[in-house]
Every structure is written in structure tokens, then in C-alpha cells.
Amino acid sequence: MKIAVVILNWNGVTLLQQFLPSVLQHSPEATIYVADNASTDKSVEFVQQNFPSIQIISNKDNYGFAQGYNEALQHIQADVYALVNSDIEVTENWLHPIIKTFELEPNTAVIQPKILDYKSKSYFEYAGAAGGFLDKYGYPFCRGRIFDTIEKDNGQYDDHCEIFWASGACFFIRSKIFHELSGFDADFFAHQEEIDLCWRIINKGYQIKYNYKSTVFHVGGATLKLGNPKKTYLNFRNSLFMLVKNLPKSSLLPVIFSRMILDGIAGLKFVLQGEWKHFWAILRAHGSFYGSIGVTYKKRANSQTKKYYKVKSIVYRYYVKSGKIFVN
Fold this sequence. Notes:
By secondary structure, this protein is α/β, with parallel strands linked by helices. The protein contains ten helices and 13 strands.
């Protein structure tokens, strides 16, 4: 099985200096690529001079995560793409369990490893932890992370199981399926495009898996910090895009209407906290969503799975019932 490790980069020379050595050291089975989103720092020159075995794909512009990968992967021939953030430290034999799973499970399209926090290595990391799920209203959460509550890794998720979405921080996907579904939705730019792709994959009848035997450590927020209003804008807008594209028809209007209310409550919370930049980010997100709703609706597949959510409301469970730990 031919595997390509593809690291998307934009002005991340410092991260490449820090994390490329671990990828090179522990990935002898793979061909390694850096897909550069038209960086203006010395990223490309650094890789060329210090890691000549790594192949470079130069995109013409900063296309973001979604289109950046779409553009780059057109030029890479492999059975499996390992899409890896530039702030990921990999571990010895991290590829073996993933390759074995793909070989044994032909219906598995995407796999996520265990993602731990680089800064506190005994804890899960926010972006993906031990695999992701959605609630009825499209709010994502993970085994090991619900909203801002992060669990310590005590082996509680040491399993090989089916999940609903895999983190884009370290995302293994069969190349055939990636191209069959035209990759990520470029209109997302960044954030939640991997959840949208996983949902579309599930609608096609494939499975998404988590395998704890492969472990990586993620810095998180190295490109766009958690408190950045742009992140708020992208998350709120893209969540609505994803729901319109993938919800079962019977749930579409009720769920979107409920999200309007919930997003309004979130905006009010930001106002009360004096976080006006985030309040305006939500307004801008909704404005962009309304302006794009016709185009987004046309992207709906012919059929949608009705089993898309793990719990009815993770917001209610977390904030009202104090359910801050994942429960199967």
C-alpha cells in the first residue's frame, strides 16, 4: 500500500524546523510532501536546503486548508493520503496500525489516530482527541474533549472503533474516495471541512474509524489561535454550510431554525462578556451563510444518513446537566 504524508504549509518555517524531523524519522514507509500555500517566508527554501528527500508542491495562492489540499493532492499518486498539520509530532511506528486497518477493512475510508496535546502529553488535544461525533444540531465534540473540557489519557479510549468524523489535524483517507467525492469543499476555506467530508463519506456507505495504536502529538492553534474572531466566523458559518449540505431532509428546517436561536444565544453571551469581535464574527458568518444558501443547498447528495448524531444536545448536556465527560 503506497502512502503519502502531505503537510500543508503557509508561512510555517518555524513549525517545519521543529516537526519535520520526527515525520522523516518515523515514516520510512511513506513519501513525504510539503504542500505550500504560496508562503512569503523562507519555508520552501528551508525544506529544499535541509530536507532534499521531501517533495514540494507549490500552490499558486493561499487557498486555505480545504482548497490547499484539493490542489496539492491532484499531483500526488498514492493509495492513502495522510494529511498532517505542520504542528504535529509523530511517534515511532505511527503508520503501521493505520496501514493494517486499511488493508483489513475495505469499507473503512478514513482513519484518525489518537491525538494528544504536545504541550501536555498526558492529555488529549482539542482538535480531535479520540475521534469525533455530532449532536442533533451539528455541534461537534470528541471522545476526550467536549467544548473546553479536556480529559487526561488514562487509556479509557484505547480501542479501535467507528466514529463520525476524524480530525483534519491528522487525517488518513483512501485517495480513491477523496477524489470520488471531489475532496474538501473549497467554500469552507478552513475549519469543519473534514467533518463535512466525513459526513459525505458516511452518506456513501463507508466508515470512519479511530485507532489508538497510532499516536501523534498536536500543538493546536499554531496557524489560527482559538480566540481569534476569524476562527469564530469560520466555525459558525461552516457549521451551517455543513448542516444544509448533509442533514436528512426531514430534519433540515427544524435543525437550521434551532441553530439560528442557539447561535443568537451564543452571540448574546459574547456581548455580555464584552467580546464584541466575536459577536460581529457570528453576524458576519450568518450574513455569508444567507448569501450562499442557494449554492450550498445545490450541493446536497441524493441521500443522507439519518443516524448522524450521538446525543440530542451536547450544549444542554454540558451546560445544564454538567455532562463534561464523553459517555458511550
